[in-house]
Structure prediction request, 86 residues.
Amino acid sequence: MIELKYVTGYAVSLRPHQVAWMAKHSYSSSWVLVKQQKKSEDKSKLFLFHARDAIQLKMEGLKSVEPEYSCEQAFDWTKVFEKIFD
Prediction:
C-alpha cells in the first residue's frame, strides 16, 4: 500500500485512520510517498517513508523523519520502485 500526499510546507496531513492503518501494518511493504513543492516555480521534491514512520511523520512533519529515499525533480522512478519492491 502506498499513501500519496502533496504538501507545500513540511506538515504531512495524514488522517487518524491512515496513521492507525500504517501502524498496524508497519511490518508490511506499506509506504507514504510525499511530493513537496513550496512554490509553483520551485522544483518538486519527492520523499519516500516507510509506514513505521507514519506517527512521527504526522506529529512532527518532514523535517523530523529520515526518508528511505528522496530526490528532486526530475524524479528517478526506477529507484523509487526499487525501494518499494525490494
The chain has a mean pLDDT of 94.
